[in-house]
Amino acid sequence: xxxxxxxxxxxxxxxxxxxxxxxxxxxxxxxxxxxxxxxxxxxxxxxxxxxxxxxxxxxxxxxxxxxxxxxxxxxxxxxxxxxxxxxxxxxxxxxxxxxxxxxxxxxxxxxxxxxxxxxxxxxxxxxxxxxxxxxxxxxxxxxxxxxxxxxxxxxxxxxxxxxxxxxxxxxxxxxxxxxxxxxxxxxxxxxxxxxxxxxxxxxxxxxxxxxxxxxxxxxxxxxxxxxx
Length: 228
Description:
Shape: elongated
CATH architecture of the largest domain: Orthogonal Bundle
Largest sheet: 2 strands, antiparallel
CATH topology of the largest domain: Arc Repressor Mutant, subunit A
Helix content: 40-55%
Order of helices and strands: HHHEEHHHHEEHHH
Radius of gyration: 20 Å
Mean pLDDT: 77
Number of domains: 2
Structural class: mainly alpha
Low-confidence stretches: 195-228
Strand order of the largest sheet: 1-2
Number of helices: 10
Number of strands: 4
Distance between the termini: 38 Å
């Protein structure tokens, strides 16, 4: 493409849209800017305009910033249609046990297998191995205070599939409690199970440090996924 510096706003958005369609992973605005030879600020502005246009016009695409980059998703309005299509050919749907285990790891990461078992009340070793195989969970280090046990955290693919920029975007688990007593219990339970000295920053790094490839389509609203 020639005369990149002379791109008008519409040409810039068109070029970005084409690259977004071709990208399988979230792409930082700086990468787009480098390829196009334009200022990163212009790219961010154009991406924001594209995102707003998709939303305002009720398009079948949604553009969001997730996991440190920009990526196209399907919007919530078409969740049912996308779900039906994905389930028609995808046999790697997560089980209830897998979803529960993934939630525990997401909120407590980095966490050991014993930590997951303490929350779920059952042995989750096989489920954790399956989540690792699906690229949603990864080994995030070792806990020397607990016999060098493996610590687990979520991957960049987890952030992508659930439409999160980082683990800090997870909704507070206490918000799902039906009453104040349960809310306090959850808060105390989480506090007691978190590994002493582990910061939110460490959990963020565990979630985003290594991508795990997952085959299949994206969840319709970025908050739900129908494949593993």
